[in-house]
Structures are given as C-alpha cells and as structure tokens.
Amino acid sequence: MTAPHTGAALKTEAPRRNSAAALLTHPLLWTAILFIALPYVAGANPFIGKWSGFVGIATTMVIFSLFASGFNLYFGHVGELSFGHAMFFTIGAYATALYSKGFNVQVFGLTLQHGETNNLFVALILSVAVALLWAWLLARVIIPRSSGIYFSMITLAFAQVIFFITYRWSELTGGEDGMQNIARPNPTGYGWLQDSLHFYWFSAVVVFLALCLLQYVLRSPFGSVLHAIRENRQRARFLGYDVDKYRVNAFVISALFPAIGGWLWTYYQQAINPDAGSVEYSGNVVMMSLLGGIQAIMGPILGASVYYELQNNVSQLTKYWEAWIGVVFVIVVLFAPRGIMGLVEDVQHYGIGTAFRRYFSRTARVEIDMEEELPPVIEDPAVTKASS
Amino acid sequence: MLTAPQLVDQLVNGVTLGMLYILVALGLNIILGLMGVINFSHGSFFMLGAYLMYQLNGPLGFWPAILVSAVVVGLLGMAFEATLIRRLYRRIPEYTLLLTFGTALIFAQIVRRVWGDDAVRVSTPAYMPESLSIGTYQVPFYKDVLLVGLTILILAGVWLLLNKTNIGMIIRAGTRDAEMVKILGINMPLMFTLVFGIGSLMAGLAGALAAPIYAVQPSLASQWIVLTFVIVIVGGIGSFWGAIVGGLLIGILTSLMALLWPPAVEMTGYIIMGIILLVRPRGLFGVEGLFE
Where in chain A are the domains? Predict the structure, then answer.
C-alpha cells in the first residue's frame, strides 16, 4: 500500500539524482557526522571567546534531537500540532527515576512498594511501556473527537495533568524538588557510564539507532499514508484509509521517542524535576522542530542542536535570555517557517541565488501552509521531470 | 469534616474565581471564534493588566488606574494584532499559537526586567470596607462583593455589545464565516484589530481587577493561560454562554476541590475537560466544524 503523490508532497522532497548523491545527502549520514562533531563544538561561544565544546551540552542536544524528532513525526508528517509532547518525555524520565530510586506509596489503601534497582534495560522497557500505554489511551480518546486547534489545546491540557501529578504527588515523585542522586547503571561492571564523555557516546548511539527506526517508519508505506493524510485528509479517507486509526498509531509512535529521550535524560542528569513536563518544554520542542524544518527528517535534529547552542550563548550574555528565544520564535514563525532544512532543500533544487529569493518570498511561505486554497506553483523543470 | 460555613466560603470563592476566569476566557474566546487566533499571549495581557495596576494605583488612584490599565492593554493588543498576528491570517491557525507562545516568553522577560522576580502586592483603597456582614457571616467586600458585581456588569456590557450593536452583529457573523462577511463589504482587517483590542482589554481589565487579590508575579501569565484554554474548550469555541458556564463551573469546582482533596486542586479543570470531551467533543455550547 502506498499513498498517491500529490503535487505538494513532491515539491517538498529532494530530487534523487543518483545513488552517490543520494548517499551524500542522506539525513542519517549527516546526523552521524553531527553527533560525532557535537562534543567538540557544542556550547562554544564566539561572543566571549570560548571555543571548546562541552560534553554536557552535547548530551542535551542529542537527547532533545530525539525528543523533537518524535514530536515532529506528528507535527511535520501528520500535520497536527500536539502542544503537550513533554508529557511523554516526563513520563519516560519519571518511570526511569522511580524504577531506579524505588518508591513506597499508599494508593486508595493499597501499598505500592519497590526497592532501589539499577538496570538500564528494564528501566527503558518500563519507560517506553508506560508512555506508550498513556499515549494510546489518550489518542483513543482525543483523536476521534478533535483535530486542528482543538487538538493542540487538548494535548496541552492533558500534558498539564501529567505535570501537576509530578508536581503535587510529593510522596511518589518528590514534588517540586523532584528526585536526586539517581545512580547511572553499571551494565559492564566497569562503571563505564559514569564518565560524562562515555555517557555522551552511549546517548548518541541510542539516539542514532532510534532515529534509524524513525527514518524507517517515515519511509515505509505507513509513512506515505501519513503524508497523504497531511496533504489532504479527506482524499486519504476517500482512498479507503482509516484516517483516525493512522493518526492514533502515528501519535503512539511519536510518543515512543520522547519516552526514550526521557529515559536518557534521567540518567544524564541523575536527577529529575517536574519542569521536564512543563509547557515550556512542550513549546521548546516545537521551536526546535520549526527552527530545523518540520518536513525533513534532519530538521528537528539540527534544530535541537541550534536551539541549545543559541540558548547557551545567549544565557551567558543576559539573564533574560528567554526573551531572545522568544524573538527567534517570532522570526522563525513569521519569516522562515520551513526552517534551516527548507533553505537547504531550496538550495539543492534551485541553486543559491534563486533559493534565497524563493525561500523568503511570500508565495513559498504561504504554499507550505495552505492545503487547498492556492494552486500549486510548479515553475521548476527538475520538479516536473521527477513527477512524470 | 466539612462544615456549612466552609462550604459557603468555598462556593463564594469559587464564584469570584469563576468570574475572573470568565473575563479572561471570554476575550480569548471572541478572538479565537472570529479570527481563529489561539492567543497564548492572552495570559500575558492579563499579567500586564495586573502590573500596570500596581504601577498606576499610587499616582492615579484605584478606579482610574483600573480603567487606564485596561485601556493600555487593549491598545497594546491592537498594536500586537496589527504588527504581528495580521501576517498569519493566510496560514494555518497553529502558527498563531506558536507566534504568541514566543511573544509570551518575551512579555514574561520584559515584566521580570521592569518589575523584578518577586511578587508585588496591590492594596484596595482605604475607604473601602474590609468585609461585609450578612447576618453572622462575614464576606470580604472587594473580593466577593464588588468584584463579582462589577464583573456581572461588564459581562452584561459585552453581551449588549455582541447582541445589540452593529459591531456585535459583524462579530457574530464573522465567527460563522469571516470570508462571507468580508465579501459583503465589511472592513474585516479593521474589525479584527478592533476585536483583538476588545479581547485584550478584557484580559487587562481582569488582570487589573485581580491584582488586589493575587500575588502579582511573572509566572501569573503561564498559570492562567492554560486554564483559560480549558475553559474555552469546555464551553465551546466562539460561544458567549459557553465561556460563562465553563468559567463558573471550573471556578466553583476548583474551589470545592480545595476542601475535598487539596492536592488535586490544579487538576480539577483538566478532569472536567476530560469528562466534557468524552460526552461533548465540541464543548458544552460549541458548534461542529469550526477550525478543524
């Protein structure tokens, strides 16, 4: 089963010239290059003359590139904005923390107890299982009942529920302060993960493998159906696809990646607090995805790195750095909603001069946002050739 | 255990809270219904109203300060619409949420820069009685009598504006189909700016009125905005009575939850939303097919 190509879908895909070029422009190759470079460049700040990288910032970047990529599976590829994806991140993080630290709580007269444990893989399985179960239940309830802006606001509201559970249920979660001193597991017996650089490489490999899975999902027939739904939901329905079923499945899959990110995040910080599930985190991953470009696989990955680089640099200059993040948000939404990868794609298609003109022109901006109201603009022979 | 005075106390509290929710949510709802703009900065306008009240209370006096704060926030809203929001009308509504999320970050930092991180307090004028006695029962005068009374007057004014004036007719028609109204020769860009101003003015007014009750701090915006969304969803997008019923429902039940089970206070609104969503996906008074 493959979805039919629509004109709009074709325009967003880079033309395949030949296999060598396809390999050289492959997003996973560039992701690998980025991840290898990050510990040496992340957090370098030319403004204050600090050039070396920071492993901690690099780790944050790879974890959030996974989180943002998972979020963007739903935003960029199904075309609906979930404004509460931090809930899956925080569920993954808290599941790991609770499993590691143990708990002892009374729920409706029942005593739930669990001692301190330290197993990397059981924690991963638990995090993912809890997050996916919640995602599935939530999706079954809200997806058939809402779409568009209702969907955005409802996901935001349910994320607040999770946030307040972590914030208020102090007995279980430690409340506002969260949990500290969560030990990193020691799977090899040599304490290999205790070193921050080693932990970076571990995170980078995990994230890279997860991104391979994501890439596989998006390039599969399933991914094509998602694109068909994004381009024209009604047409996808007429073709016989059960649109809501695909939306539910995509939502559950898009929760998987933030959950894995949360698992890594707890071990990276060795502590966790409710902020991980706040509106700010949900909003920030949207920002990362937009900044990088929502229609490219590479987009959120690059976006997360650029976001944290910016945040780190600006926060060394002013304590009101969030305002500047807000300014970047406004500029990206108004003038560059296709993000960095949108520009890269345009350069690949049209060459540098035309690409810049096209990228910042109003038609190009409107074109990606409107589904039906504008006729498709096909002016480039390369695109027309690729579609015939 | 629950006692009757406690229950009455919380009910009255709930009505006050609900009234403020209604003021904020109604402004958001009119903007959302007419223009499809999800204004995440609406909470910032509420917060700015409260801070302006703090700033102006001394030099202008209590009542003029409330009025001036609201009008300033309203004008700010109009400028906001004319410079930023206007560029997004040809795009999908989600982008307005993202843009206003960004501006909410900016507003929060501006407020921190100007008025600092610590909470500030606004006092009611000295001539105003602390409380009112009804039999043996003492009611805080400003919070539970004056504020509620004023809000009812304001809501009546908004209802008259929406239902008995030409502008109201255009707003109601535009909520159904903005394009058709435009074709009929109405200057919609001007209407949008005006309505955005009215909505922001209501948020600023609510902020100024709420300033003496709450600790005014930079986190005020984010505390209010999500719950305001919830009220709009519960009531139904674009519905006047929806905002009123939703605001009162959530205000009262939140206050009662403070008696029943304090840890769940913040979650009450979301639980109500979950239940309503299962039964009526478009909210209590919502219509199908708006912005989907």
Answer: 20-335
